[in-house]
Amino acid sequence: MTTLLVIDDDRLHCDLLQVALSRHGYRVSTATSGREGVLLFQQLRPAVTLLDLRMPEMDGLAVLKEIRAHDPRAGVIMLGGGATEELENLARKLHVTDFFRKGLSLDVLVGAVHRIAQQAKREASRAPSMADNEPDPSFEEEILVVDDDVMARDLLMRFLGLRGYRVRGAKDGREALRMIEASAPDLVILDLVMPEMNGVELLRALAARDYAGRTIILSGHHNEPLLAEAWALGPQEVLDKPLDLERALMAVQLVMVCREC
After folding, report:
1. Per-domain residue ranges for the chain?
2. Contact between residue 195 and residue 167 where contact means Cβ atoms under 8 Å apart
3. How do residues 229-253 score in pLDDT, each as one tens digit?
4. Does the reported pTM lie above 0.85?
5. For helices 34-44 and 60-70, what crossing angle results, to 10°?
6. What are the E-state strand segments in the chain?
7. Architecture in CATH for domain 133-257
8. What phi, psi does 29 have (nearest 5°)?
């Protein structure tokens, strides 16, 4: 039986969804707070999580960050009553699977759950076992993530940390430079557009200091002249924002494998 998780501080709404989805053959668990929801997600690994956007203490975006750190591909439907376009865009950046306003037809919501659950089954049948994805304790590579976007930086740090890398974070180029001078990482992943010292300026500073590690650029802006300057300074890869975490992991693994080439 497919497991679903409903996270909503409104107990009545939890009960309503539990009854409605149970009638369609799902095993439904509920949580009435974000923290409880994160713990249940880790325990149950549901095929689909229905997540309320607005909750006290730990809201839906914070819960979604935690879910993505544990499972970048988990099916998550955000229910955003009264959500602004900005909040919806933040959820999209965190790769929410679907986003609905509260008050929609139950039939539409059930249909979305069916679709996402079936997709999860297909991916599970093709995916390697959980043991294959466990972090390798022998990893010693260190990564520094440099990004003024706190949410994006934290998400990438958690994602890479769960895959066995030692990860540090810096909020801007100047802080990153101080950290690199103190202890140089094997790889620097840096945002192209940052205040005070942008990605190009940081790359130049690293070149002047004969930094021997590798670099990956994150680019969320279509600034072709700046991007051309960055490429000229020799990064190993440029990744677009919003970030595809699986593609980012592949790029990191390739750069690490080839760093002696």
Report:
1. 3-127, 133-257
2. no
3. 988 998 999 998 888 888 888 888 8
4. no
5. 20
6. 3-7, 27-31, 48-52, 75-79, 98-100, 142-146, 166-170, 187-191, 214-219, 237-240
7. 3-Layer(aba) Sandwich (3.40)
8. -110, 155
